[in-house]
Specification:
By secondary structure, the chain is α+β, with helices and mostly antiparallel strands. The chain has helices at about 1-15, 120-130, 140-160, 185-190, 220-225, 250-260, 300-305, 340-350, 355-360, and strands at about 25, 30-40, 40-45, 50-55, 60, 65-70, 75, 80, 85, 90-95, 95-100, 100-110, 110-120, 165, 195-200, 200-205, 210, 245-250, 270-275, 285-290, 295-300, 315-320, 325-330, 340, 365-370, 370. Residues about 1-20 have low confidence and may be disordered. It has 2 domains: about 1-210 and about 335-370, no CATH class; about 245-330, no CATH class.
């Protein structure tokens, strides 16, 4: 529930974010991305690397370099440091993966925290092929570039006092460094340079997901907070997605074990019943039936507990077959905002990226946040 509370808090912040000024410059706008969290060590390599300590002193280190957590600090080439900063004229390799920008390494509660501070436009080029394929129709790739830029700037504003603005995972946006950059991704970013989605002059919280399964979802049905531009809209476009239909089989014992670990008192799980659905078709509440009780649980909580990659959406049917619960559903993700596979199909049918964005975020428009 901690992640849901964080997301809800970020949406609330939309009411207080600054108005778009257009004063920023795309050549200087940066973003801080947590690219590794909780790892016990990292291997750093590259050409022309320069390393400095937390005090700003230049360090004489040999690369490749292994950085480990050591007590409350870092073990770096036989030295104990509070933090480490590494810059390169080209790329810094972390565990064999290339990153642009400046790398910072800190000790964290569960290991190491590695942050990449990178120009926002360069970050977007490396992000495209992590979220979709740059080989999709160009208008769909442009839509993803604008959405990712919007999401990143919103998070930067709302997390401006934190050590980093974004995680490189599905909790924010998936980012894998510079190794999968290509010319089509770069073209989409360049041709939408500085563009963001706005509502009433403010940057929106541009949620997106893989496929909605026929209808996107209103924000209040996922995070209990109504946002005017995050309304559910009909979307039959993603129904041609290869993975729109999914099936999963789980034992009652496995499900009950995961639920108990999350604090739900479930033992001897006998049935799972759909209690209610939203107009979109997604489930609102499930009833977990045991011999001595019925436990009601929000479907979004059930999906999180069982696993986002296991229960791909909350639009499913469930049956008990041969001592296993079989889930058959459609869509992948929370269903709020842009449907990526829907955007692909709409682009194939001739819609521009601006038309795609205005459909999935009603009442918004695309504006310039910063100039060249």
């Amino acid at each position: 529930m901690r992640t849901l509370k964080i997301v809800m808090g970020l949406i609330v912040l939309a009411l207080f974010l600054p108005m778009l000024s257009g004063a920023a410059n795309g050549d200087t706008e940066t973003i801080r991305v947590a690219v590794y969290k909780g790892v016990q060590s990292v291997r750093i390599n590259g050409i022309g690397l320069e390393a400095t300590s937390s005090s700003g002193s230049r360090l004489d280190l040999s690369f490749p370099l292994i950085v480990k957590r050591d007590g409350t600090g870092l073990s770096v080439g036989g030295q104990n440091l509070r933090s480490l900063k590494i810059v390169s004229p080209g790329f810094v390799q972390v565990n064999g993966k290339g990153y642009r920008g400046t790398l910072e390494i800190y000790p964290s509660e569960k290991g190491l925290l590695v942050i990449d501070e990178i120009l926002l436009e360069e970050y977007l080029v490396g992000l495209i092929n992590c979220e979709i394929s740059s080989q999709w129709p160009m208008e769909a790739v442009k839509a993803q570039a604008v959405v990712a830029r919007t999401f990143a700037l919103y998070q930067k504003q709302s997390r401006k006092n934190l050590l980093y603005h974004l995680e490189s995972t599905v909790y924010d946006q998936v980012y894998g460094g510079s190794d999968i950059e290509d010319s089509r991704a770069a073209r989409a970013v360049e041709e939408t340079h500085g563009e963001v989605v706005s509502y009433n002059g403010k940057i929106i919280q541009a949620f997106f997901h893989s496929s909605c399964g026929g209808h996107t979802e209103a924000s209040e049905n996922v995070w209990s907070l109504k946002v005017p531009y995050l309304r559910g809209v009909e979307c039959t476009y993603c129904m041609k997605t290869p993975s729109v239909l999914w099936e999963q089989s789980l034992s009652p014992q496995k499900i009950a074990s995961l639920l108990r670990a999350a604090g739900y008192r479930v033992a001897g799980l006998e049935n799972i019943l759909v209690k209610s659905r939203y107009p979109s078709g997604r489930i609102e509440y499930l009833d977990l039936v045991s011999a001595d009780r019925i436990v009601t649980i929000p479907a979004v909580a059930f999906r999180k507990i069982i696993g986002y990659g296991v229960i791909r959406s909350t639009d499913f049917e469930v049956k008990l077959i041969d001592d296993a619960f079989v889930f058959i559903g459609v869509g992948y993700g929370h269903g709020v905002g842009l449907c990526q596979w829907g955007a692909k199909q709409r682009a194939e049918e001739g819609f521009s990226y601006r038309e795609i964005l205005s459909y999935y975020y009603p009442g918004t428009r695309v504006v310039i946040y910063y100039d060249e």
